């Protein structure tokens, strides 16, 4: 049993061992091992040329990664917190996402951008945001997130090995949660990076969640089971592209869907998922696709963040509404 | 700055610049800058003549592009008129192993890299977004978002160091092109910080053409741009950007320093954009004709021609032959640009992801079916 944070650390280490072109870059990733210690001891073992403590400049972290990738490296950028990614936004959206397209496929930018995201750790402002929709909206990027240590270990390696630029969101409130991880499992046999996974099978309604909300959805499903409702929980894992066939199959079977995410609901991923399910599964639906999301406000102060974050009760309330239709 | 300052009647900017060829075509043997570096060139007659040919050719191709834009064959064009010496001087100073990161106006550098001059026309005609192979030609994609490429160049230069390709006379160096307006961008500042901190093998080549679209240099800076380098811990130098010899000499020295492991240099090539920023703006709204006239007197081509004539390195028939050859190249270019086909509609979906995407595959299929539904219907 290891924590999700330690699983990421093991995954990064193995990616660096497997490919000498993998370099890690970011603020405090070296001696400190990152503010969450995700890169702990990597600089000690791989040297300052492969685990690079950078100047404090997010556009620089991503912009120089572009040049390194053109040169043949496989950079892994750490953005220290979700709310700090915006200075790098231009480089990610205007450069990283588009360069393969602009060059008619001549250039590949196998860059992984790690971003700890989401709330629930009592942090100050700009440290608890969920900016995934901005990136999922941008063609040319792949956007993924993990919800448990086993996925964290394999998905970070898959993201680094992928020739696509990948935005890798890490659910920071789950960094300390433990789970079984087979550190010796070959990557070739792993579940594909861009696939959704049924985290808990069920027949009465489908809960769709990702990252930090998968735990909430699973807890809700356990509670619902006590009341005799079997909820299926799907961990999206990939937010762009979304593995729709898995979603559609589930919703056609259960007839009800509730999407859960921390990010504000307005123009969020839940809206997209609800629209797609409505288009594809209309005749199977017993109720509209419902959403449980953060409110359309800036992420609030820590003492009231529990009011903002979707929790078990809000999810169960939505399930009740679905059944009441 | 040494001898450059002593040349009379040349409107040298305060602080001077390195100049090896006056607007009248007088050759200055060498210039020693404030830091003690001496700049000179040692060209053969043939090399002088080929430099002249480069200048004339890139201007002639550019003139053709402006005409094509006016005739509606290009959506837009960013003319290099007036900046030929800055581009050819620096472009010819590059060695084959060096990597260049341009903005969108470096057609002259592109030409010096040996790239087919038609390559940028796909971008400006709207049939592609500039799909040449950056690694094959050691010349990256054009970059429209101002200053972004300076960070790409910086990262590439870090990679050069990590690959162990610096520290010797045959090492690799990187050059990043940008304009005076770009120096106001945060990303350019970050590129300077990173390159200084990592002592990267990079030359920042700023073509100060005096205007960022309509905004004059005074809207970008209170100090001469080359002086900024000191704050980042590497040397800055200003060169007469209309002097192809000085530009070559200064760039070659900076590149050699970079490849030898001595880190970055900021070069400010002091020049002037004679035309519009792009074919979409009207420079008569923001600058006066006497200013343009004064820069005409410093033209990079006429001064080299005067020098070649005075030194009897070239005669009338050579100049005529250069003009004629450049003209042929321009007309050939015109024909090829006009023949550039529009891309097949379905290629919209190509190259978004190296290994594709199921969602995009589905959209491509739907698009193809929709297109096919019009066949035979008269659309």
Automatic annotation (TrEMBL), chain A:
Example GO molecular function: oxidoreductase activity
UniProt KW Oxidoreductase keyword: yes
UniProt source species: Actinoplanes sichuanensis
One Pfam family this sequence matches: Transketolase_C
Cofactor field: thiamine diphosphate
Protein name: Alpha-ketoacid dehydrogenase subunit beta
Domain Transketolase-like pyrimidine-binding, residue spans: 2-177
PANTHER family: PYRUVATE DEHYDROGENASE E1 COMPONENT BETA SUBUNIT, PYRUVATE DEHYDROGENASE E1 COMPONENT SUBUNIT BETA
Keyword Oxidoreductase: yes
Keywords annotated in UniProt: Oxidoreductase, Thiamine pyrophosphate
Annotated InterPro entries: THDP-binding, Transketo_C/PFOR_II, Transketolase-like_Pyr-bd, Transketolase_C
EC number: 1.2.4.-
From TrEMBL, chain B:
UniProt-listed InterPro entries: Alpha-ketoacid_DH_E1_comp, DH_E1, PdhA/BkdA, THDP-binding
SUPFAM superfamilies named in the record: Thiamin diphosphate-binding fold (THDP-binding)
Oxidoreductase is among the record's keywords: yes
Domain Dehydrogenase E1 component: 56-343
Cofactor field: thiamine diphosphate
Superkingdom as given in the UniProt entry: Bacteria
Keywords: Oxidoreductase, Pyruvate, Thiamine pyrophosphate
Pfam families in the cross-refs: E1_dh
Matches recorded under CDD domains: TPP_E1_PDC_ADC_BCADC
Protein name: Pyruvate dehydrogenase (Acetyl-transferring) E1 component subunit alpha
Protein species of origin: Actinoplanes sichuanensis
Lineage of the organism: Bacteria, Bacillati, Actinomycetota, Actinomycetes, Micromonosporales
Gene that encodes it: pdhA
């Amino acid at each position: 049993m290891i924590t999700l944070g330690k699983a990421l650390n093991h995954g990064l280490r193995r990616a660096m061992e497997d490919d000498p072109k993998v370099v890690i870059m970011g603020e405090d990733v070296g001696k400190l091992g990152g503010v969450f210690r995700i890169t702990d001891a990597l600089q000690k073992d791989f040297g300052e040329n492969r685990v690079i403590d950078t100047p404090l400049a997010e556009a620089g972290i991503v912009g120089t990664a572009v040049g390194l990738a053109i040169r043949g490296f496989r950079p892994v950028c750490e953005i220290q917190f979700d709310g700090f990614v915006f200075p790098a936004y231009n480089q990610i959206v205007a450069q990283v996402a588009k360069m393969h397209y602009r060059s008619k496929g001549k250039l590949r930018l196998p860059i992984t951008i790690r971003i700890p995201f989401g709330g629930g750790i009592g942090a100050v402002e700009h440290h608890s945001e969920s900016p995934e929709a901005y990136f999922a909206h941008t063609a040319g990027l792949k956007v993924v997130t993990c919800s448990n240590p086993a996925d964290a270990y394999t998905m970070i390696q898959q993201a680094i090995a992928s020739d696509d630029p990948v935005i890798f969101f890490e659910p920071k409130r789950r960094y300390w949660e433990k789970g079984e991880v087979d550190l010796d499992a070959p990557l070739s046999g792993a579940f594909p990076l861009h696939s959704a996974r049924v985290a808990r099978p069920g027949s009465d309604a489908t809960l769709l969640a990702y990252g930090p909300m998968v735990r909430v959805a699973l807890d809700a499903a356990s509670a619902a089971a006590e009341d005799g409702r079997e909820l299926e929980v799907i961990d999206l894992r990939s937010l762009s592209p979304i593995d729709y066939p898995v979603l559609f199959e589930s919703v056609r079977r259960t007839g009800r869907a509730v999407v859960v995410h921390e990010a504000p609901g307005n123009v969020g991923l839940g809206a997209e998922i609800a629209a797609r399910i409505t288009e594809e599964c209309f005749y199977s639906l017993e109720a509209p696709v419902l959403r449980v999301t953060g409110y359309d406000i800036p992420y609030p102060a820590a003492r009231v963040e529990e009011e903002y974050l979707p929790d078990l009760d809000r999810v169960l309330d939505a399930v009740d509404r679905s059944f009441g239709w | 700055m040494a001898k450059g300052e002593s040349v009379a009647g040349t409107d040298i900017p305060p602080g001077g610049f390195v100049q090896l060829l006056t607007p009248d075509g007088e050759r200055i043997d060498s210039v020693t800058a404030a830091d003690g570096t001496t700049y000179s060139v040692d060209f053969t007659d043939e090399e002088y003549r080929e430099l002249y040919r480069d200048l004339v050719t890139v201007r002639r191709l550019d003139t053709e592009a402006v005409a094509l834009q006016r005739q509606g064959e290009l959506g837009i064009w960013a003319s290099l008129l007036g900046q030929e010496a800055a581009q050819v001087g620096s472009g010819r100073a590059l060695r084959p192993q060096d990597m260049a990161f341009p903005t969108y106006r470096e057609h002259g550098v592109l030409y010096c890299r040996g790239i087919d001059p038609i390559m940028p026309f796909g971008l400006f005609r709207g049939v592609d977004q500039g799909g040449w192979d950056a690694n094959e030609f050691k010349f990256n994609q054009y970059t429209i978002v101002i200053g972004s490429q300076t960070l790409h160049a910086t990262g590439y230069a870090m990679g050069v160091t990590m690959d162990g390709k610096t520290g010797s006379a045959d090492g690799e160096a990187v050059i990043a092109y940008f304009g005076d307006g770009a120096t106001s961008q945060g990303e350019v500042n970050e590129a300077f910080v990173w390159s200084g901190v990592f002592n990267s093998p990079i030359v920042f080549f700023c073509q100060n053409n005096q205007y960022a679209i309509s905004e004059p240099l005074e809207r970008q800076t209170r100090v001469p741009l080359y002086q900024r380098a000191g704050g980042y811990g590497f040397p800055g130098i200003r060169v007469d950007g209309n002097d192809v010899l000085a530009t070559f000499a200064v760039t070659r020295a900076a590149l050699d320093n970079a490849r030898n492991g001595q880190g970055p240099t900021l070069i400010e090539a002091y020049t002037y954009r004679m035309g519009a920023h792009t074919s979409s703006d009207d420079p008569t709204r923001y600058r006066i004709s006497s200013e343009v006239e004064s820069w005409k007197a410093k033209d990079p081509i006429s001064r080299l021609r005067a020098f070649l004539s005075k030194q009897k390195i070239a005669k009338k028939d050579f100049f005529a032959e250069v003009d004629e050859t450049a003209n042929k190249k321009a007309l050939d270019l015109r024909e090829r640009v006009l023949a550039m086909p529009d891309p097949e509609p379905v290629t919209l979906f190509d190259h978004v992801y190296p290994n594709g995407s199921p969602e995009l595959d589905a959209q491509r299929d739907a698009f193809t079916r929709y297109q096919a539904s019009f066949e035979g219907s008269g659309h």
